[in-house]
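If you are new to this repository, start here. Below is one unmodified record pulled from the training split, so you can see the exact layout before writing a loader.
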Amino acid sequence: MMSLFRLANLRVTKLRGADWFIVLAAFVLILFGLAAIYSVDLSRGTELFNIKKQLLAIVIAGIFAFFLATSNYKLLRNYSLILYIFGIMILVAVLFFGTTVRGARGWFVFDLVSLQPVEYMKFVLILALASYFSQRARPLFGIRECLESALISFLPIILTLLQPDFGSAIILAGIWFCFALFAGMRFRFIVSLAGIFSALFLFSWEFLFVAYQKARILTFFDPTFDPLGQGYNVSQAMIAIGAGGWLGRGLGFGSQSQLKFLPESQTDFIFAVIAEELGFLGVVLVLGAFALLFLRFAFIVRASRDNFSAFLVIGIACAFFLQILVNIGMNLGLFPVTGIGLPLVSYGGSSVALFLVLLGVIQSVVIHEKRS
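And here is the target side for that same chain:
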């Protein structure tokens, strides 16, 4: 018993070297997310069921993030292959045994608990690519590195498209592209990739995308294509954002979310809920918290003493950036609606667990860099 107490005390002591600006930013984002989820729960009369589930996921993920933060993150590199293979296995398993949610067969549902394997795969892909590029760092990014790293990413992307979950597949592909850019990918490779992506998109359009996904993409190019269907979501989100003003209508008083005009208000369109109910001030605070995260990420990358640490932090920063870009973009009508949540803000246990775990890994990098 005493040894367990000493071990726990040792881990707590390690937190003295943590980056508390990251903790502050994460706390602000989680707080805004819980406030918005609470507001929507009130309007639906669900006895705050969703916010209770979100709080439980935050607590469990927070404990796991604490464990990672106070452990040696470099040990993850030793298990990257095993974790990657397990990720592929559960992506295959969900295609056969998963539950269909919002048109995608990408969830394992156990009574009150639901898990989305692709969120785990995002973490594993970051780890696998960081391990790969740290071992093969070159002044010039060659065709071999391009093909091998693309192959690591290709299988989970295809399995995700088969669900079909186009939004998550885009995030996985974007993570690989960010890694390749920072590794020094040449311009001609980028042009070639644009051609490959176009061919993959056409193939997905013909054989993988279902009707509602095609409607989302068509609505992106022509908002009047389906004004009462897929176009309705984006229109209501933009109305909510515009109605917020400087200080918002007040928590629980947003017409779009409270009167259920805004679909998926706790997940895809939680940014619109915050904009309407907490106004421009709330939006600035949320974006400011994200900006603080990225500033700290950049500082940690510059202070990293080895390639694995640098690539790992870059991959985590890219995962945050891509999801923020896609989520806010679709709230503003700049991107098609793809079902991507806002990190640490949107409702969803798998998503909030992913990003808290990623921040736990970041803290482990910070602590060990300071100790060394």
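Two things worth knowing about this chain: DSSP finds 15 helices and three strands in the chain. The longest strand covers residues 104-110.
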